[in-house]
Amino acid sequence: MSIQMPPAHPFDDDKLKEECGIFGVVGVTDAANFIALGLHALQHRGQEAGGIVTHDPETGFNQARRMGYVRDNFTSADIMKTLPGGIGIGHVRYSTAGNKGQTAIRDVQPFFGEFAMGGAAIAHNGNITNADALRRELIDRGSIFQSSSDSECIIHLMARSMGRNIPDRMEEALRKVEGAFSVVAMTRTKLVGVRDPLGVRPLVLGKVGDGWALASETCALDIIGAEFVREIEPGEMVVINAKDGVASHFPFRPQNSRFCIFEHVYFSRPDSILGGRSVYETRRQIGIELAREAPVEADLVCPVPDSGTPAAIGYAHESGIPYGMGIIRNQYMGRTFIEPTEQIRNMGVRLKLNVNRALIKGKRVILVDDSVVRGTTSRKIKEMILDAGAAEVHFRIASPPTAWPCFYGVDTPQREKLLAATMTEEEMRQHLGVDSLRFISLDGLYRAVGEAKGRNPKKPAYCDACFSGEYPVAPADMIQKGFVLKAAE
Description:
Elements: H1 10-13, E1 17-18, E2 20-26, H2 31-41, E3 49-56, E4 60-67, H3 70-73, H4 77-80, E5 87-93, E6 111-115, E7 118-128, H5 131-140, H6 152-160, H7 166-174, E8 179-186, E9 191-195, E10 204-208, E11 211-215, H8 218-223, E12 227-231, E13 237-241, E14 245-249, E15 259-260, H9 262-267, E16 273-274, E17 277-278, H10 279-293, E18 300-303, H11 309-319, E19 327-329, H12 342-345, E20 353-355, H13 357-360, E21 364-369, H14 376-387, E22 392-397, E23 410-411, H15 419-422, H16 425-432, E24 436-439, H17 442-448, E25 462-463, H18 465-468, H19 476-480
Parallel strand pairs: 15-25, 18-21, 21-22, 22-24
Antiparallel strand pairs: 1-23, 2-5, 2-11, 3-4, 3-5, 6-7, 7-8, 8-9, 9-13, 10-11, 10-12, 13-14, 16-17, 19-20
C-alpha cells in the first residue's frame, strides 16, 4: 500500500519550519492516547511523520512510526491497542539534518535501544551541530547506524557510556553533543526531560492527574487537561517517575540562556505560553512596535493568515487604521490535492489563500506577515491583492530580515536563497514590487518580547542568529563543509 503524505505547497514552502515537536507522559492510564493528543496539538511543529513508544509491564516496549498526520495514524483502535502502558513518549517531525526534504520511515523518532540495564527510547527537538564528527567517530569504533538522523548519535553515545543507569548515560552522552537539544526519553519506569545549556528549544512540565507530562509547548498540556507547572530550565535534567515525582539537577556548565526568538515570532502556537508570556500577546506587541517604527498612510491593515494575524491586530490598534480580513485562508486544503494536475499546481497560493475582493478594492492595503524568506509567496500575494483592485500594497514584516540560516533545528534554505542575504531592503521592495516594505528592527523585536532596552549586543538574551548572523554555538559540521561565519565587526 502506498503511503500518502501531506502535499508540499508553495505557500508553506516559503516559511521557515520548526522541525520537531516532542511529548512524554508517565503515571497515567493508556499513555498512548495522551501522547496522540499532545502530538496533535504540536502538529504545527512537524507534519511529515510521527512516532510513539510506550512501555507496559506485560508486553514490554511497544512502538509505532507512521508517515503523515497524527490524526490519520494515531486515532484508530487497531493502532492504539498495540501501544499499551502508562508511560511513553512521542515525536512529530519535518525532515531534519539527516534527510533534507525527504523523510524516510527509518528516520522517524522516537529512537529505541536496548542497554545492559534495560531498554530506553529518546526523542529530540533541535539539531546537533557536531553530528557529522560524532557519527564518524562512532562508526570508526564499530557503531552501526540505522537512520540518517543526527538524533541517533545520542543513543550510540549512551550505549558506549559506563553510567550506572539510563539517566546517567544520557547525561554523559549529552555532554558530548553541541548545538540545540530539548529531549524527552523514557525507561521502563522513568520519564526524562533535558534542555541544552542555552535553552534554545522549548520544553515544559505539566501535571495530569497523578501523572506528569513533558511537552514542547503548553498548548499540548492544555489538550490533555494538564496543569502547566513550569518550563524546564536551560541546562536542566528532570527524571520523573509515578511514585517519587520530579527529581531535578543541572549536569552542564551554566551559561547565559539563548532561547530562540523566532519561537515568539512564528514557530509556537499563539495560545502557548513562553517565558511566562502569552505568545499571542507578544505577537500583538510586535505589531505595535512595527507600527511605531514603520508608519504609512493607508486604508486597511490586513494580515497574511494565519501567522500574521496577531501582529496585524497590534499594528491596526497602534496606527488607528482599520483592521480587516482581506485574505481568507482555506483551512481544509489538507490532502485534497494529493496528486495535483499541472493546471492546479500553477494556481500556487490560490489553493490556500483567497482575496476578499469587496474589502480590498480601491484600498491602500498594509499586508502584515511574520517573515520573508525566499520572497516567492510574498510576490504572489501582492499580485493577488493588486488583481483584486487594491490601490497600493505596503508590506510590514513582524521580524527583522532573515539573512542567515539556522543550524539549531529549523529548516532554513541555504544562505544564498534567503532574499535578505543578497538584497538590501530597497532591493527587496523592488523585487517584490510593492509600494513600501519595512521590517521590524532587532531592537524593536526585543522590546516586543519584554526587553525594554532592546538588544544588548554584548549579551543578547535570545538566539537571533537568523537575523544577526551571531551563532551562540559554532556550527562545527557546517564550518567543516565551508560555511563562512559572519566577520567580527
